[in-house]
Amino acid sequence: MSSARGLPVSRRALLLGAGSVGAAALLSSIAGCGYFGSNEPPTPTIDFNPAALDPITGLIATTRLHILRLDAAIAADQADAGKLTPLRADRQAHLDALTAEYARTNPGDPNATAAGATGGTAPVSGAVTLPSSPEAIVSAVRGDAATAQVQFTDAISTASRYRATMYGTIAASLASHRAVLA
Amino acid sequence: MTSPTPGASPTPSLPVSGAPSGSDAPSGSPAATATAASGSPGASASGSASPSPSPLSTPVSTQPPGPLGPDAQTAMQAALVTEQAAVWAYGLVAAHARDQADMVADARSGHLLRRDATAARLTAVGASAPEPAAAYQVSVDVQDQNSAWQLAQDIESDVAAAWRVVIGSSDDAEVRGFALTGLSEAAVRLAMWKQVAGIAPPTIPFPGQS
Question: ipTM of the assembly?
Answer without folding.
Answer: 0.74
